Amino acid sequence: MPDRAWRCFVGVPIGDELRTELRTTVETLRAKLPIAHDALRWTEPEGWHVSLAFLGPTEVDAIPRLAELLTAVAANHPPFAVPTGGLGAFPSRREVRVLWYGMADRSRRLAELAVAVRLAASVDLSAPFRAHLTLARASGDHALPLPDALWRAELPSGHLAVERLVLYRSHLSAGAPRYEPLGEYPLQPRVTAGGSR
Question: Which terminus of the chain is more exposed, N or C, with fewer CB under 10 A?
């Protein structure tokens, strides 16, 4: 009997150019820092994204309605870009549970989009939105320090083009999780009074 509830979330995929540059940098980091390679579970570049809302177990029958809600959110937000660059960690650099690549959401447009998605999907708003792309997670049950050389590494800087929302299904296994896109919802350019975009 097939699963009737899927682990789902909504995110923004990254472009191929940034993915290629970041993949090269991460491969260099992993080669130079074997301790980090052993202590961290690295995410797969094909699945890199910026999460906006974790939906948790989602009934399969609810997916069509969710798609309608995300279409409506996307229709009310024009495409935009967010500067990227640098490394960070949760909860801190001294105690790393999650190693991430940064997004400089100074305009708060990405945060506003995340709030709109969460409201539409009836997701709890109490957890703060932190714009980031997860590169790795600690392998064990405890946070760990990472070598200073990692924090001095140069990472590519550029822009995340926020052009569409994607509804993903998470497939968890002993290895890296796999993210299956269930639907894409393009953000819509605003139409001016004269009819131009």
Answer: N
